Structures are given as C-alpha cells and as structure tokens.
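Assess this one:

_____
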Amino acid sequence: MNETSKQEGAVSYDIYQVKSGNEYVDYRFTGLQLMEQLGLPFSADNYEKVYIPVR
C-alpha cells in the first residue's frame, strides 16, 4: 500500500495472473492449497501484473 492510500484510508491493490506458456500450465486455475498438496512450489516469478488501478 502506498503512502497516499494509507493516509486516505483507501485500499490499494494490483492484480497478478499466472504467466502464459506451457511451463505454467500446471499452475493455471490451481489454488494455493492444491498447489501445496500437489507439491508445486509457489514462486512470485510465475506471475505477471495484469492490472494496476488508477491511484
């Protein structure tokens, strides 16, 4: 959350989604809990920012 949002009491967020490509197919539509059960590691590098709201 940036300083302006904190001062105004607003919530700030960005939206990420799994990158495209065959190496990410196992991660699509898979929740974190299921990823853990399947032994798929979580890595922020597997995601790309797709939306940034106007701040």
Q: What stands out?
A: The longest helix spans residues 32-38. Strands lie at 15-18, 47-51.
